[in-house]
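note to self — DONT lose this again. spent like an hour looking for the file last time. sequence + predicted structure for the chain T wanted, 190 res
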Amino acid sequence: LAFEVELLEVDFVADVTGDGTVLKRVMSPGEGTETPRSPWITLVDYTLTKEGGKAKIKRTDVEMRIGEGLDLPVPGIDSAVATMTKGERAIVTLKHTKKVRRGDEAEGGPPRWETTTYYCDIVLRTWYVESEVTDDGRVVKKVTKEAHEMEMDMPSDLDLVSFHFRLWAEPEPLALDGGVGGADVVVIGG
């Protein structure tokens, strides 16, 4: 008996947490190698499906802080997102075990545990970092792209800098924009 085998495709599955509860399979890679870190805020699109195709939840433009997760019936999605690059699409398998209350436990018997499997098709669109500029929290800086050390030196007094800005007040946006060419300012006080 002889036969030939041709390997057509290999799917690599990463055990994100090391205990088998969060598994990630990359469906399409993202840009570069940089991944979000805690406490960065990510913007994701996802579809969550309970095993068997029941209880489908689909959301777009969802903000999620790394380390805090999403308001989902199963924890661990933020662990998978922390390993993704911008634009990456992955299927994440989440196994959630919870204690089920039964009469046996009240009578001194062992508790019953139930494991539910969820599949989350998720795309990491982008991320940003928010930090308070003033002590009263009225001015918040949102960094969407960090400059690398080699790209730019920090401006000092009397340097002329150009930048692009958008200003808005929540919940209603203001019509103030620095334009495509940006704005020029002189740095005073470093």
